[in-house]
Records
---
Amino acid sequence: MTPTREIMWNVGLDGQIGVYLFLAIPFVLLAFGVARRVWMWRKGQPENRFDQMSNRIIGALRDTVAHGRIVRKSSLYGGIMHFLIFWGFVLLFIGTIIVLIEHDITVPLLGYSFYQGNFYLGYKLVMNAAGIMLIVGVLMAFYRRYAMQPDHIKTAPDDIILLALLLVLAVQGYLVQGFRLAVEMDEWAAWSFVSYPLAILFQELPEGLNRGLHTANWWSHMLTTKIFLGYFAYSKMIHPFTSFANVLLRRTRPLGKLERIEDIEEAETLGVARLEDFTWAQLMNTDACMHCGRCLEFCPTFVTNKPLRPRDLVLQVSGYMADKGGVFSGELGQADNFARFRHGSGPERELIGGVISQPELWDCTTCGACMEHCPVYIEHVPLIVGMRRNLVLEQGEFPAEVTNVFNNLERMSSPYQFPPSQRADWTKRLEQPVPEMAEQAASGTDVEVLFFVGCLGSFDSRNQRTTLALARILQAAGVNFAILGKEETCTGDPAKRIGNEYLAQIMAEQTVETLNQYSFKKIVTACPHCFNAIANEFPEIGGNYEVVHHSQLINELIGSGKIRLDPNSEMMKGTVTYHDPCYLGRYNKEYDAPRSVVQSLPGTGMVEMPRNRNTALCCGGGGGRMFMEETRGARINQTRAQEAIDTGAQTLAAACPFCMTMFEDGINGVGADDVFEVKDIAELVYDSMVKPPDQETGAAD
Amino acid sequence: MASLATIWGRATANRKVSLPGCLAFVALGVLIIAVGEVQDWGWTRIVGATVISIGSIAAGALIGWSDPVRPRITYLISSWGKAIVAILTLIIVGPMLIALVVAFGGLIVGGAEADTGLMLIGVLIAVLLLGITLVTVASAFSLAMRGLWRSRPDEAGETNGRHSA
Amino acid sequence: MKIVVCAKFIPDPNLALVVDPDKKRVVRDPSQSILDPGDEFGIEAALQLAEKHGGEVVAVSMGPESADAGIRRAMAMGVERAILITDQSLEGSDALTTAEVLSSVIASEAPDIVVTATESTDAYTGMVPGAMAAMLDMPQLTFVRSIEVDGQTVTAQRDYENGYQTVRAALPVLITVTASVAEPRYPSFKGMMQAKKKPIDTRDLGAVGIDAGSAGEAGAREKVLDLSKVQIEKQTRVVEDDGTGDSVDEIVAYLKHAQAI
């Protein structure tokens, strides 16, 4: 006999019609839910997310079906759990479709049957295994929610209802199969390896009872699938639609680039004050969130207990949208939906102040950890900066400390109150002069590398030491370089991230205009914020340059032997730990060059902090935060400094002037300044390199 | 691929489908299936199912795509919330719980010729399935009864004031 | 309530001051000039009063035509309209002429309150507000750090070296403020855009009713005789701590001597 089974075995006419008839209700509910969400997204501003379709599709399959962003080193448990539930469910779903194709298409229409023989046996094996995957995945999720209870996971009724439904569906499947096997007891019954032992047990019962229980469980299973389908769109289970849409229509531009407000002087609305001011893609973003909490794990504000939690911010906007969309405001589990309605509910709320509080918006360091770890490409930082823009540009509201930063940028072209004429004063401390671009251009001298010093490197006394070290390294390596000197201006990064887009545009345009006057091969900068602006934000305003971070250039110089490190240098022989600057690592994916530099230091060991590379915790200085008071929660810089100290290292290697300033404070703050120090990688290299004769006496500072 | 956006726009602009039309479609599909099954035609199943799906999806999409009206239906669901949860839970887990409990009957009435080893595995599986079903369903049920239709906090529990900027 | 604030367009005090040795006058480059930061305090205080009690804030400025850049800044902060007195013959005016010009315009506005900085951040004469109060026949409240208006009465706190003094006057009144009166707001971009459309009433000397001959350098009753650079001497004294605690006494004695404490 060929192995197969009778489809719709023991199912009466009522069931044969019912299975199709009952499709109508969940389909109406599901279609309504999806259509209403898309309808709400369409309230947003236009944005083209339909370019590069083939890349989008390939990437989306990699990140969802193949779990590219779901199973990650930083979230293995959750990733594997999702993989099991996803593939268990998908395989069982495909199994149902296979039966449908056999029963409703190939057999009645073509008279062809494939649901038999080895295919059938393999099918049974896979389906039974898929059921186990689904059950194990669900149990892992249960265990995590009830026993492990990680900080970043909160449980609403919806989460548990869905898990229970998924588990019940799998168990029902085994039972229905078991009852049929108990009666039929095919020779190949053992291929259904989970149901087979159950069937052996059921076999002892009267056949009539087995048939009766089969019917009851068949109906129950059929109706459960319909209930599940109907509930789909009103729970986080909608994420196969919304999250897939979000991954497919994800942002393809560099993560480090914040969108400009085009024609800002004519713009009707500045930033985001109402739901309609977001782009449709941003609204889709908020609906794609199924609150996995990964955005929180490495978020500096969450870790230090501040009001801002990126997950909640996204859910708050999505809850507000639901209120506006009418039907979802009656969403199930609303009272326990921990984040959506954190600040109350109702479609008449103000977005800023009513849905999202101002402290939440100002706490963000724009470190990008949320976006890096979001499995479905939600972009939290642009949402936050959009609302900051409205506060700054339209309402003139922002932390008072920032006023001076804006005034200084306007008047001095730097966040600090130093006249531009003093920008190159640090060069006076060098043994050899540093030429300025204007001089070189006037004398017709070619310049290879333009050293973009940045405001902190120029004016801040601690960061001047980094600048001096880098300049001495470049001089020692014989690099043909020059600086802009007093012509240099801020790239606009702090203003842009604080939300003063107008000022940021003026600063950026000014800088590009200055740079475009000169010819050079590439730019080097020790500031990842400048680096990010030059690399990602300048091209669209006519500034196209090759730019490298100083860690990359130094690494290259060491590699090519232009700098030799002295094994007998006075450099402290000890252990160094390296902190990844957000704007170098997460935003621009440079994790290796600075590490390679640190590892090449003679006599120095390197240890990693628990949170490193893309999981690195921010220093707390980005997004304009360095200029603001930190009044809520624990101090981010101290939290990170303590993490560095706990590695047992004696030195923290920094590669960003913002980090440098934050850690100088942070190390003092935890009272470790006599045993632990922060040094820029340029200082570390300069301290341990073989110096040319004229630099012999010059210490890094 | 700007065309995708265009298609989207066009699809939403053309409102040629009407709600009664969609529902009539669903009814037609049901009729096709019922007649086909009674007559044992077979081919009618996929045709009927397709017609039902198109009709119901179109109906849902149509309502979803129009301006929201104050939804009485959610109020209705809310006021009957606990009863609905109870009935649905019964439909979902009633038969399977009976089945899992009855399974142990097989052990008791089990004849001498039965393969006891496999039967014990069967019992083990039944116990396991019963256990995890009870635990998960009980947690979900109690959460649903307790929390599902509680009204949302209108007054924020957490500080929501504008700080002086 | 109508409040007039004085707004001066001055060379950015953060930049190096350039002095013309022949004219013995500060070189005023409009591209390097800003609204006097000292005036921003007065403008902020005036705006807060107007927001609280209703009314309008009018800025009055005397300076070159380019001074409208400074006025726009005041307008971006919230000032409704402005009067700019600009006339070639005003160049080189002394404090008295300045006060005459400003007060004659202010008088035509008949304000309830006039708010000015204690002194300008370029010339630092500090004489204009007092002269204006005399010419306007208003009481003057100087060095004010907080202003309360109740009906026709103004209650103000005057900054003192070791505290403050509470004084009261009847409206109309002239008030000079210190930096502690209010934190000037940073104008929103929307405010800057709106400021572009606000009216600036530009008047020449004729419109003010002052004879050109008595204004400017020609009419100045004070003359700058000489200008010289300030010599800043850095005096560093290192006190070694020998563990006896004498060093503390020594430092305290020194600071007392220097009148630092």
Note: Residues 152-165 of chain B have pLDDT under 50 and may be disordered.
---
Amino acid sequence: MSERIQLNQQLSLGKQQDENQYLTFMMADEEYGLDILAVQEIRGWEEITAIPNAADFVKGAINLRGTIVPIIDLRLRFGISSIDYGPLTVVIVVSVYIREQQKVMGLVVDAVSDVYSISEEKAKDVPDFQDSNNAQYVSGLVNVGEKMVVLLNLAKVLDLNAK
Amino acid sequence: MSIDLSQFFEVFFEESFEGLDAMESELLNLEPGKEDSETINTIFRAAHSIKGGSGTFGFTSVSDFTHVLETLLDQVRDGRRTLTTEHVDLLLKSVDCLRTLLRALQSEQEPDLTEADALRSKFEEILGIAEATACESNDEKADEITQSTYQIDFKPKAHLFKTGNEPLFMISELGELGEIETQVFHDAIPDIAQLHPDECFLSWRFFLTTDSDSKAIEEIFEWVEDDAEITITVCGGIFEASTETLSEPESADGKSAEISSASITPPKEINKKAEPQKNNESSTSTSIRVGIDKVDSLINMVGELVITQAMLSQIGEQEITESTITALQEGLAQLAHNTRDLQENVMRIRMLPISFVFSRFPRLVRDISQKLNKQVELKLIGEQTELDKTVMEKISDPMVHLVRNSLDHGLETPDKRIAAGKEPVGTVTLNAFHQGGNIVIEIMDDGQGLNTDKIRSKAIANGLIQAHDELTADEINELIFMPGFSTADEVSDISGRGVGMDVVRRNIQALNGSVEVASASGVGSTFTIRLPLTLAILDGQLVQVARHTYIIPLISIVESLQIDITKVSRVGKDLDVLRLRDEYIPILRLYDIFNHQGAIEELDKTLLVVVESDNHKVGILVDDLLAQQQVVIKSLEANYQKVDGISGATILGDGRVSLIVDITGLIKLSGLKRPGTQELLVEQQGSEVA
């Protein structure tokens, strides 16, 4: 109940201008944020059809009301060791424009966390860490209270053809 | 009473365009000097119906132009004139011109008549100026003779409205006959207290200048003869007379008001406003012609479906016993059968033979080859291959691009061809066929092939690749699909602006298709377009490999069998070949190619599905055969990307996703090379040249 109140507070905050709302989720004790407008729905883990010869982070495809939706394990995409999927494993279904084509994909994450409203100026704060391959997936870092949230550039994360 | 002709415009345009298409294809079939009277008749008939139709609807620009065309054709038909190549060229040009005119009219624009006039004067030149002018002046004379002005007095009786007649309709109908001046007399209108709203107190006087005779006018008033006094008199024949009457005492005394021709125009204006909207709609929503047999069979099927439904609901109301369960099962089986039939037939409505696209190419090839001074023979194969209408509409432009490219860049000029030891006449082949849920369109030419050196240096110059990049021939050929790439030495109006191939690829990819090029220097190049049959249904064989279920298109399966281990021999390091009757079938291990763990590896415990693709037979090793069923093809690419060896996905009865195996892709993926491959390749190239 208290969570919902908090969420509502956050939502009402989000109506202020220049603020974007982000859905955050947990992965390996880190908190990541997605633009909430890209999120279509959140589902539980279900049985999945493997795609032959796909990269390890492509777990397969599911049937989402008649559409074939590929499922990406974000842990593996970021090179973090994977954990076993259980009943609590969450799939965030997002809709993103990748190279001018709209794609619907599912992201496997550890758990969904919160919704924050973050002003654009705050979110623009991108540190320069050239040495990491994962840097291109990050659109910004932001502090929310004591915590740090990594905002993701979904179009890059899900662009499977990028080298 | 009066009929709004504009509702038939669409039909007229549609028919005219069809007529023009027919004219065009027949003209292309004509060999000058050896014209066949049936062909000429067909062309003549098409021209004649266009002329008739456009005359009816008042599109004089079209009917006048078609008239000269018809005159020439008439002379040819009667054997008074022989058709020359110039005539055919001129006729083809006029077909184009008519098409432009009709398009302009269709979109409610004023047609540009400069080209039509130019062509017309050429026709008149051929027909002989004297004759043409005589003919024209005759027409004019005829017009003058019939033009006359009628004075029509129309005094309806009070009960006119009660008979269900509406004077406004008659007036606007009169207005369609020619120019009309109207006076209305309202002196009979009583005081408001005595005024009956359902009685008519008005009377009219019209001055109509028209080329129709008085009969036409009488016809308009035929229905109200008994309910009105009608007098029709011929005036001096000059329109001015009617303007004079305006100043007559009657109109000046204030009791009669003058409703000038402006009062007639409102209904016309309304018509005009309505038409553009209609046409806008028609430009986005196109119609489809469906054979009545297809519709009839649909109605039959829906009828059966209703019967089955009634039967099932009847069973559902009964108490459940064993016999009802059997009946229920039977009913469900029938329902499944009906649903499938219905689905198939509904799909068939959208499917049209690809000849609709192919038919425009003979003309295109003829025009371009003339412009380029090349001799080209066009071969069309697989014209009856059916394709979804939407896909077909979108594929035609990319195909035109590719064919133009083949003609411009691919084929050499006759002397170059002779120097290269080839026939002087080049061949462009369009081939369409179905392959595992895809439609494949091949555009082959036997020209010089892609010049890899030239492409490479051009790509370096354009900064697409670096000078030190190592590329295979295929990778270099791929470069032509990059934006801003053109190797034509000179930019021509046929191709070479460098906006071609990348647009072609993008358009095809937008249809979830792909385009590839294969080329051999001096032998020719082949562009292969693969398009999914969107919405298509596929008969599939479900197979199991480890814990995965795949679907193999039933159409490519030759047979399924248990492997006789004694007939298997190993070729090379890791390829097993089965001797099946007189053939050697290489065995592809699906689990190996798709990288799945946990499948049965022993040959004698598995099953082999023998499939055929491009005349190659291969055996696919699977753990087990499951059901056969029809599946709806869904795109895997839409949200993901192209997967080698997989043509699409589908959703099984239990909601799970299953992937459909693309046999050709699978063979490619397995990297299969087998004895005799070399010969086969040569054979294929040979057939391309032929």
Note: Chain B has 23 helices and 23 strands.
